[in-house]
Automatic annotation (TrEMBL):
Keyword tags: DNA replication, DNA-binding, Nucleotidyltransferase, Nucleus, Transferase
GO BP, one annotated term: error-prone translesion synthesis
Family: Belongs to the DNA polymerase epsilon subunit B family.
Protein name: DNA polymerase epsilon subunit B
Listed InterPro entries: DNA_pol_a/d/e_bsu, POLE2
Pfam families reported in the protein's UniProt record: DNA_pol_E_B
One function term, GO molecular function aspect: DNA binding
Region (Disordered) residue spans: 107-131
Keyword field contains Transferase: yes
Organism: Candida dubliniensis (strain CD36 / ATCC MYA-646 / CBS 7987 / NCPF 3949 / NRRL Y-17841)
GO (cellular component) term, any one: epsilon DNA polymerase complex
Biased composition (Basic and acidic residues): 119-131
Length: 707
């Protein structure tokens, strides 16, 4: 006999602490408002005045276990909780009964036959669910459903929650997006957008800090018991294993009162009002003395980056001791480095294999704030399909595709003719049946700027109209050229990514890279309406910069910016670097020519070209920082409503940089393949530059075409 207490009316605030302790802290689940209200009513009816008892806590434990067994994700929503409660009641054979004043005792033994019936129905339901799942697994997957271009305005919003150490992902509502697009310049809408940007501006660096801190907490080199200092890591690379000592990351506020001790701290590098370098974490900030700092090689250093700094804290010194609420003193830096990046598969596994691009809604329909999780079994199936489609390829044209340059147009004609002939040959080889041949790309990615001079507003309205018409006529000429190659038009998607000279950003940036506003919106369709009419419906995709391409299990990030120039211009030169350079020059002056030649011969196999070293520095810097723009606000302009689109954490499979200021390169770091494509046409000769990517084998082929 189970005694059922009289039902009571509880408030969600009564149940929230218990639910947080059991569901969130113990099981890593998060319950939303609707589900908490349902859970409150259920516990009030089921346990009454005993809602704090052990039985009610065991009831919550059972809910958590069933939720995990059914693999419903990290968020408990109302509809899902109702189904779980229904399943639990079916198993127990006892529907939740509200205890009446005339009948507060419920005899479960009287429902023995009912229990047998529920057990039989449960087995039958489980068998039907297995059959449905088996049928779903047997349904062939069309790769076209998983080849999508995801712009920042269509990408789900993802914000890192420092408390749960998980991502909050919100899928955008199409109706809300349309309302924003139709705001018509109204003052209230503008003020609303500004009000949204204010908290986003505050949280932008906080989100980066907590995300990188979480990554460091998983790195074995930064565990409390087995941590290695930066200087020890550098010595270990040089073969000096005797210098390895234990160390752990310390919060800045915890250094107070520990004068003369050695610490390893982590935070944001910036400058204070006295133009001194400072490091700031979640607790405080401290002035840095970099006179003896030894940096980790092969990386760029700039304000706005999150860095690991090792050194000695001194309570005296520094120029900001008089500030209130400031720890005071100075941190004498001995070593400085970046937080090491993490492989994609490790990050995805830690964060529950979340669908950051919103590609899998057809598998698990998404409503509201529910997060979709990608099953590992399904992901393996997508990988297998990729391998079977090894002939698929995407073509990325070189950047700065100036349509007002006759040299570029001549190169495009030559390229289109070559591609048209290869498609015809592929079709003829299959007797008119189009197959997934190597000569038919599934998409052509064209990256701007599409005009050599920025489209800008002038004092004369007539000139302004002329500029717009001239820009539109460039795309009309491109359409006329493309129309002469019907097979390309029929079989290839065209993806347009804007550059710094394209509208409407160019009207205020005037083509200046320092005034680029990221992410940059797509090219207005008023300029490309003829191209849109030429191509079949859905074959013209105008997207943002940066943008992401999802191909089955792979995530590709395409970004247009002069990153190398920006990193070189803002790279910090440490006093120790100058000292080492002077010592090296003095040492070389003392060496005879014969010894210098012998040293060059001995090191010729280990010497790397300067271009390769710089490419590796760029790749390692942005991947370690986990962001495409790791700078302060004075070096970049960011639309904070889409700040998440610049984050590359977890690492994508591929990053395609379109930096015309640097040569082509291909570098792989921690499983992430990063390439750079320079200008589409070389200035010194008539050579067209493009890259072919085969996602089935994850292989890039850099191509040249002389014309």
């Amino acid at each position: 006999m189970e005694v059922t207490s009289l039902p009571i009316k509880l408030q969600p605030s009564n149940i929230r602490p218990i639910a947080f302790r059991i569901l969130s802290k113990k099981h890593g689940l998060n319950i939303n408002t609707d589900a908490l209200a349902i859970l409150t009513d259920t516990i009030g009816y089921k346990f009454g005045t005993d809602w704090k008892s052990v039985r009610s806590q065991q009831f919550l434990e059972e809910i958590a276990k069933v939720w995990k067994i059914e693999d419903r994700g990290l968020f408990i929503d109302g509809d899902g909780l109702k189904q779980v409660l229904k399943d639990m009641n079916s198993k127990n054979g006892n529907e939740p009964k509200r205890a009446h004043r005339t009948d507060t005792l419920v005899d479960i033994t009287n429902d023995g036959n009912q229990n047998h019936t529920h057990s039989h129905n449960e087995k039958q339901t489980d068998l039907e669910d297995k059959n449905v799942q088996q049928e779903r697994d047997d349904i062939p997957i069309n790769w076209k459903d998983y080849f999508k271009v995801v712009s920042p305005n269509n990408q789900p919003t993802s914000i890192f929650d420092k408390t749960r150490k998980q991502f909050d992902i919100v899928f955008k509502n199409i109706d809300d997006k349309d309302k924003r697009n139709n705001r018509g310049g109204k003052l209230d809408s503008i003020l609303t957008e500004l009000a949204k940007n204010l908290p986003a501006s505050i949280e932008s660096f906080n989100n980066r800090y907590y995300l990188l801190s979480d990554r460091l907490s998983r790195n074995e080199n930064f565990q409390k018991k087995s941590l290695i200092s930066l200087s020890a890591l550098n010595s270990f690379k040089e073969g000096k294993t005797d210098s390895i000592v234990g160390h752990e990351i310390t919060l800045i506020k915890n250094m107070l009162g520990r004068d003369g001790q050695k610490f390893l701290i982590f935070g944001l590098l910036s400058k204070n009002a006295n133009d001194e370098y400072t490091l700031e974490d979640e607790t405080d900030n401290i002035e840095l003395n970099l006179s003896q700092a030894c940096k980790s090689q092969g990386l760029f250093y700039s304000t706005g980056m999150f860095l690991l700094v090792e050194g000695i804290y001194s309570a005296s010194g520094g120029n900001s001791n008089q500030d209130h609420g400031y720890i005071g003193g100075c941190f004498y830096v001995s070593n400085i480095g970046h937080p090491p990046s993490e492989r994609r598969e490790i990050s995805l596994d830690v964060y529950g294999n979340l669908d950051f691009l919103g590609m899998h809604r057809q598998i698990a329909p998404v409503t509201g704030e529910k997060i979709t999780k990608i099953a590992k079994k399904f992901k393996k199936k997508l990988v297998q399909i990729e391998k079977n489609l090894s002939n698929h390829k995407l073509i990325f044209m070189g950047t700065d595709l100036y349509l007002d340059d006759f040299k570029v147009l001549d190169g495009l004609r030559k390229f289109f003719q070559k591609l048209e002939n290869s498609i015809i040959e592929s079709i003829e080889d299959e007797e008119g049946q189009l197959t997934e041949g190597t000569n038919i790309p599934i998409a052509l990615v064209l990256t701007g700027s599409f005009v050599s001079k920025p489209l800008s507003v002038t004092n004369s309205s007539v000139s302004n109209i002329t500029n717009s018409e001239s820009y539109k006529s460039n795309f009309d000429n491109f359409t006329s050229i493309l129309s002469k190659f019907p097979n390309i038009v029929s079989h290839c998607k065209i993806i347009l990514i804007p550059g710094k000279n394209d509208p409407w950003q160019s009207t205020y940036s005037l083509g200046s890279s320092s005034l680029n506003y990221f992410p940059q919106s797509f090219i207005p369709k008023v300029f490309i309406n003829r191209l849109e009419k030429l191509l079949p419906k859905g074959n013209l995709i105008v997207t943002w910069n940066p943008t992401r391409i999802n191909y089955l299990s792979q995530e590709l990030v395409v970004f247009k910016d002069e990153l190398m120039t920006k990193l070189k211009r803002n790279d910090i030169i440490f006093p120790r670097d100058i000292q080492q350079q002077e010592e090296l020059i003095a040492k070389n002056d003392q060496i005879s020519n014969e010894e210098r030649i012998n040293n060059l011969i001995q090191n010729k196999n280990t010497h790397l070209p300067s271009k390769i070293k710089q490419a590796r520095k760029l790749v390692k810097t942005i991947l370690d920082q986990g962001n495409l723009q790791p700078f302060l606000k004075n070096l970049k302009l960011i639309n904070l409503a889409y700040d998440y689109s610049l984050r590359i954490e977890p690492l994508p499979n591929v990053i395609i940089l379109n930096d015309s200021s640097f040569d082509n390169f291909e570098v792989t770091y921690n499983g992430c393949k990063v390439i750079n494509i320079t200008s589409v046409v070389s200035l010194s000769n008539r050579k067209l530059n493009y890259v072919e990517y085969y996602p089935g084998t994850k292989r890039f082929e850099f191509k040249d075409l002389y014309f």
